Amino acid sequence: MKRIKKILIPFVVFLADIFIGKRNLKASGIKIKVNLGCGLRCLPDWINIDASLTALFGSRRFGFINKLLYRLAGSSAYYSFEEFDAIIKKNELHFYDLRKGIPLLAGSADVLYTSHFLEHLNKNDAKKFIKECYRALKPRGILRIVVPDLEAAFKKYKEGKTEEMLDTFFYTSDTYDFHMHKYNYNFQTLKKLLEKTGFVQVKKQNYQKGECPDIDFLDIYPNNSLYVETRK
Ligand SMILES: C[S@@+](CC[C@H](N)C(=O)[O-])C[C@H]1O[C@@H](n2cnc3c(N)ncnc32)[C@H](O)[C@@H]1O
C-alpha cells in the first residue's frame, strides 16, 4: 500500500496540476488573507491553498469521497473522520502546486501565512516561493512564516537527542515527496533570504504572537519552531 501511495499520489497530483491547477484565485472580503501549504489548518475567510489529495478531491457535498480520502491521506493520525469532514465542508480548499508560483494577482494579498511548508521546498524553489510572496502581497502587506527552527535542532543534538532531532527536523518521509523536508532555516538565513527579496522589518516572533491575524488558531507548534514576520 505504501509503495502504491508513493508512486500514485505524486502522479495524480502532477496530472491534476496540469489540467486543473487554478491561476489567479479571486477572493471576496475586505482583507485578502492566504494560507499557503495550509494542510488541514483552514479558515473560512482565508484562501486556503495546498497540493494535497484533500485539496484536490475533498468534497463539500459527497461525504463518501471524504471517507476514502481520510484513509488515503493519512489524516487519521491527527483527526477523527468527523473533524476531517467538517474541515472540508466548512472551508474552501484550493489545489495548487506552489512550486509553480502563487495563484494570485500581483499586489492583491493583505496577509500571507505559511506554516511548516517552506522546508518542504528545495533551496531554489524556496527562493522562487519567497519572490512569489513578495509579488502577491500589497505594499506593506504581512508575510508570516513558521518553520522548524534549526537552532532548536542543534540544541537537541548537543543534548545528545540525535535521533529525535533527525526525526523532527530532517526526516525524509517514507510516503512521498511533498512530505519530505528539503531544507532548514535559522533566523539569520531566513532573514537574509527575505531581505534579499526586498522584504523589510523582518522580526522574530513567538508562538501565537505577532501582527498576522488569526494566529491563535493557525499557529499549532509551540515548540521547536521559528516564527518570523515581515512586510513588503
Ligand atoms: C507539514 S504540512 C503543514 C500543514 C499546515 N500548514 C500546518 O502548519 O500544520 C506541509 C503541507 O505542505 C503541503 N505541500 C508540500 N509541498 C507542496 C507544494 N509543492 N505545493 C503546495 N503544497 C505543498 C503538503 O501537502 C502539506 O499539507
UniProtKB/TrEMBL annotation:
Chain ranges of the Methyltransferase type domain: 102-144
Organism superkingdom: Bacteria
Pfam family membership, one: Methyltransf_11
Coiled coil ranges: none
GO molecular function: S-adenosylmethionine-dependent methyltransferase activity
Identification of the protein by name: Methyltransferase type 11 domain-containing protein
Taxonomic lineage from the root: Bacteria, Candidatus Wolfeibacteriota
